[in-house]
Amino acid sequence: MNAETQNYLSDDLLRVKLNVQLAVSCLLLSLARADNEITDKENKKIFEMLNDLFGMSEEELQPILKKGNEVLDLNPGLSFFTEFLNQKLNADERFVIVRVLWQVAQADDDADRYEEHEVRNIAVLFKIPYEKLVASNIVSKVQFVEDILREDGSSGGYVNRPLATAILFMELVKSDGKIDPQEIEAGKAHLVHLFEIDEEAAAENMSKAEKLVTQSGGLHSFTSFLNENMDDQDKFQLIQGLWKIAKADGEIDRYEEFDISEIASLLMVPKESVEKAKTI
Description:
- By secondary structure, this protein is an all-alpha fold.
- It folds into 2 domains: 3-139, TerB-like (Orthogonal Bundle), CATH 1.10.3680.10; 161-279, TerB-like (Orthogonal Bundle), CATH 1.10.3680.10.
- Helices cover 72% and strands 0% of the residues.
- The protein has 16 helices and no strands.
- It is elongated, with a radius of gyration of 24 Å.
C-alpha cells in the first residue's frame, strides 16, 4: 500500500461518524471475518446479539451492518473502535461486549485460533483483567499460562523462564498456608543466581508470581507448558531452587516435601535427580 492510498484511507476514516451501535457491530463483523469466512450461523448470531444488546430489529440493524462492513473495508484496526468504546462504556459494559464476541466466535460450535486471538486482542484493548476472562471461560487456562510465560505475549515469543520459575517457587512458599519472608528471600536469591537478573527484577517476578498462582489452573497448567519449553538441566535447577526455598527457614516440612515431589513428578524429573538436587 503506497502513501497516497494510506492518506486516502485516513481521510475516509476521519469522516466516519462512530456511535456505540456501529462500533460494536464493527467488532462483531471483524471477528466473524477473522478466518476470512462469515458463516450463516455467525450472521444469525450477530443479529441475535445486537438485538439483545440494543433492542433493534433486523430491519433496523441491516443498514448499520452494511455501514460496518464498509468501514472495515478501510482497514481501520481494532483500536479505532475500542478507543471510542472505552470512552463511551464502563468496564462492566465492555466486558459484556467481550462475552458477546465470544458467543459469536462459538456460533459455529468451534472458536478457531484466529477468532480466539481476535477476542483476546479486543479484551486487552478494553483493559479487561486476564483472570476475569479465564474465570468466564472466554480464555482457556492453558492459553492463560502460555500468554503470561511468553516474553512478548505471543506464541512466537521466548519463554519467560524467570517468571515460570518464580511461579513454582511461590507455589512452594504458599504450600503450608503461610508466606515466610525467609523463603521469599531464598526464592529471589535463586532467581538472581539462575538467570543473572538484579534483585529488583527478582522481587518483581516473585510479586507477580504470588498473584498468578491464585489465578491459574493449578500446577498442572504450568508444568505442562514447562515440559515443552525447558530442558532437563533447566528442570534440575528449578528443583534445586525449590529445595533451597524449603530449607530457608531451617527445616523442610511435609507440605513442602510433598509439593516438591509433585512438581518434580509433573515435570518428569527422575527421583534420583530430585534427591541429588536436595543435597546441593
